[in-house]
Protein 1
Amino acid sequence: MRAFRYESLPGRVVFGVDSALDVASEISGQRVLVLATPRGLPLARRLAQPLGDRVAGEFTAVREHVPVAVAEQAVACARSLGADCLLAIGGGSTVGTAKAIALELRLPIVAVPTTYAGSEMTPVWGMTSADGKRTGRSLDVLPSLVVYDPSLTMGLPRELTVTSAMNAMAHSVEGVYAAGANPISSLMAVESVRALASGLQAKDGLEARTSLLYGAYLAGAVFAVAGSGLHHKICHVLGGAYALPHAATHTVVLPHVAAFMDGPALAPIASALDALTAAEGLRALARRVEAPTSLVDIGFDPAKLAEAASLVAARVDVAEDAIRGLLAAAL
C-alpha cells in the first residue's frame, strides 16, 4: 500500500430523523443570527423557537453563488447585532453565506442542511463578483456542528433533489483523483456514490431521503479532505461567469469530466454504479433519474463556448483545445 496522509477535520455531526428538533439545545451562543432563504424562514423560525430571546436577528437575503455584495451585507448584519453564533438552516447558499460571515468575524456556525449540497462539511468558502467566482479554504468557516435530519428534505422538489444529489456525487467522484485523495476518503467516496445512486433510484420516501442525505454527508466529508480538481474548477468558472445554476451545472458537466479523467482511480466509482466506466455509469444514472444533460438547457449560450474554454484554461493545467472539446460535448 502506498503511503498517504489523512487529515480528520474538527467538527461534530448529528444524523437522524427529527434530530433538528433538538438543535437549539446544542447551541451555547447568546446572540444567535439565524440565516435562511425567505422560503426556508418558517422552518428556520420553528427550529430556532426554543432559543427564545437568544435569537438576535435573521438574515434572509441569501443568493446563489454568494455575491460579494450579499456577503458584505450579511457581515454588516452580524456585526450590528453583536452575533456570537450563526445558525444556518437551508442549502449550500445559506451555509455559504454563513461562511462569508465566519470568514470575516470568526463566529461559530451550526448548520442544518435541507439539501444535499455538502458545503456544511467543508472548510471551503466561495464568493462571486464581476470578476467571477473566488474560493478559498479556512478552518474558520468549517461548521462546528452539523445536524442532518432527513425529514427536512422530504419537501425538496424532485428536480432539485436530483441535481443536488448529483452535485454531491461530484464531490465523491472527484475525490478519488483529486490532489488530496487517499484510501480513507476514497472508501467514503465509493460508499457515498452507492448511497446517492440508491436513494435517487428508490421510491421517494423517508428511507430514500435518508440514503441521499447520508451519501451527501459522506460526499462533503470527502471533498473537505481530498479537495477539488478539474470538475469543480470548470463548474466554478461556468457558474460565476454565466450565472448558471450551481447544482445543475455540476450535474451536466460531471460525466464529461469523468470521461476525460478516466483511469484506475475511477474504477471503484464505476463498480459502485455497476458500469464499465464511471462516465458510462454517470450517464446512465442521469438518464434514469431524468437529470439535466445539456449546458444549453440550463441557460448557457453556446456562442460563449470559446470564451468559456479560455476562462477555464486560465485556471487549470489542461490545454484550451481539450477544455473546448469537453465543454462542446456538454452542450
Protein 2
Amino acid sequence: MSAAPGTDPRPPEGQAEPEARIFVGRRLEISQISTALLAGSSVIVKGRAGIGKRTLLGKVREELAGQRICLAPSVATPKQLAADLAEQIHEAIGLEVPERLIPPRFRAVAERTGNVEFRHIRRTLSREPVADQMALLLRALDHRDDVILFVESLEVPPTQAEYLAQLSERCQLCAALDADNRRVRIQRLLWKFQLTVDLKPLVSPDVRDWVEQWLDTHPVAFESPRIRKAFIRGVARDSNGIPAAVQGLLDFALVERSVTRATLREMSHDAALTYLDMTPVLVILSVGFMALRYISRGMGMKELMVMAGVGTSMFYLLLYFGRMMRLRGR
C-alpha cells in the first residue's frame, strides 16, 4: 500500500508563527549551490562555527522546493533520522507500506483506495527496527534522480554516518561541515561531494543592512540618533561579519533599557573572536635562541655554515606558514 500525503503545514492551534529570520547577502553562494544541485552534483558547505551554514542551506532548500524533492531530516539520533525521512518521503513520494504495518481498522480503506494516511501508520512504523525502516525508505528512493537530502551538520555519530552513506547512493546530498572537522568516520562521505563551498564572513554593507532591517521591527531605544548610527557601525565592526555574532550583539541590545555610549563599549561576542596562530612565533624564538648559543661561543666557518642552514630553514618555514595563514583568510 502507498502512503498518501496528509500533513497540515500550519502550526498547532494557539502556537504563534515563528519569527522570520533576516537573511542578507550570500546571493553568489545560493546561485552557485543551486546550479550545482540542479546539475546533479552533491554540495558540501564548509565554514567556521556561526558563519551561517545552516541558514544558507535553508535558503537553498526554499529556492529549489518547486524544482526538486527536498528532504531535511534531523540527524540527532538514528530513530529521529528514520522517522523524519519516513514522513517527508511519504509526503513527497509515497511509501510502499507492508500490510502488517497498517492497523486493522484502516486496512479496508487502504485496500479500497490503494493509499493509507501516514498518521495511521506512524506508530506501527516507529516500532520497527531502524534498519528495517531505512530499508523501506531506501526502496522508496530507488530509481529517482530528483531527490536532494539536506543535512544541517555532518558532525554525526558512526551510525548516522553509515545511514547517510547509504542514502547518498540514492539521492544527492547538500550538507554543512565545520571547517575544523577532522573526524575519520565522515571521510567515507566526503568523496561523494563534487562541489565544496567555503563560506566567508559577511561584508560590512550586508551586516549594516541586516541591522537596519532588525531595528525596523524591534523596539530598541537609543540615547540619540548619533548613538543609533554608531551602534550600526559597531555591530558591523565588532561582529567581524560572523552571523552568529551579529545576532548575539542585536540580542544584547534588545535587553538594554537604552543603548548608550557605554553600551557600545561593552558590546562583544565570542563567535567573532579570532585566534592568532603562534607557531611561527615559536619557530622564530627557537631559532633565535639557537643563534644566540652559537654567537656566545664565537663563530667560525663551521658555525657560519650551520647558521646559514638554519636561516634558510627558517625562511622556508615562515614562507610556508605565511601561505597557510593567507589561505585561511580567504
Protein 3
Amino acid sequence: MDTPVGSLTLSAGSSDPTLVPTNNIVFGGSGSNRTVTVTPAVGQSGTATISVTVDDGQLSASTNFVLTVSASFVGTRSITNSAAITIPSQGAGTPYPSTISVSGMGGNVSNVTVTLRGLTHSWGDDIDVLLVGPGGQKVTLMSDAGTGPTASGANLTFSDGAAGMLPQTGSLVSGTYRPTDYAPTDTYPSPAPTGPYGTNLTAFNGTAPNGTWSVYVVDDGAGDQGSFAGGWSVSITTAGAAASLVAGPPALVWIENPPKITSITFDHGTIQLIVNGEVGLRYALEASRDLVNWTKLAVQDNTTGSVVFSDRPTTNAIRFYRAVSTAK
C-alpha cells in the first residue's frame, strides 16, 4: 500500500551544526509541494552539506545539497591608494584615473568620505577632481576653488556632513569640506564619464560598495602645476545583510505523488500490472521474494497517466511487486 503524501515524514540534517543548526532547517508547504528554508547561524561562514530525508515508516529516501555561506564585512572601511597623482600645467593628471579596488564588503553604501592627500599646487583654482563609483555614479569633489598657491602638503577631506565648502578665493588648507563646484561648468577628458556631475556624496548611497572607485584629476588652466603627493583614500560605510548564501541544487525539495499499482491480472502465466502516476515521470517495475532484495524488471515513461507492465514468472514462489520512480 502506498503512503499518502501528507503522511510522509520529513527530516533534515547538517554536516556542520555550528554553521547551520538543525533547528534552522525548516520545512514549509504541504502535500506534494514542499519547501525547505535554511538559515545559517549569525556570524558564521563556511560550507555545510544539508540532507533531507523522506520516510513512510518502512522505507526512506534522501537527497542532499551543499550550502556555502560567505561572510562579508558590514560597517566602515577606509582604503588608500598612496601613489602620487601628478597635476600638469594643463590637462589630465597622472595616473588618469587613479583607482581603488574595493572587495569583501557586504550590504549597501550608506556613507562615503574622500581624502585627497598631500596637495601642493601653485594655483588652486586650476584643479578639478571627479569621483566615480563602481556603479557609475559621479560626484565633483572640487572645482575652481581657491586662488593663489595652496598650502604645502594639504589634506582635503570631503564629507556631506562638513560645515562648509572650500573657499572660492584664498589658499586651500587642510580640513574637512563639502564637495565644492564653482562656476564655470567643467568637463573631463575621456575616459572620464560625461556630465552632469553631482555635488553630494549621497549619490552613492544604496549602491554596491565593491568594485573600482576612480578619481579623475584635471588642471584646467595653463602655467601652474602640482600634485597630490600622498594619493587619496576613500572611507565607505555600508549597512544591510552581512552574508550571502550559495546553495547547490536542490534548494527546493519537491515530493512527487508516488506511483501506485492499481490493477493486477493473471492470464495464462502472465501477470499484467497497471501503474498510475504523474505524467512525464519514468517508472520502474521491481519484484522481490522477501521485501528486502528487489530486482528491476522493466522501465517505462508515463506519457498518459498510466503504464502497463507485464511479467511472466518462471517459478511458483511468492512474488511481491512495487513501482518506483527512476531517473530519465
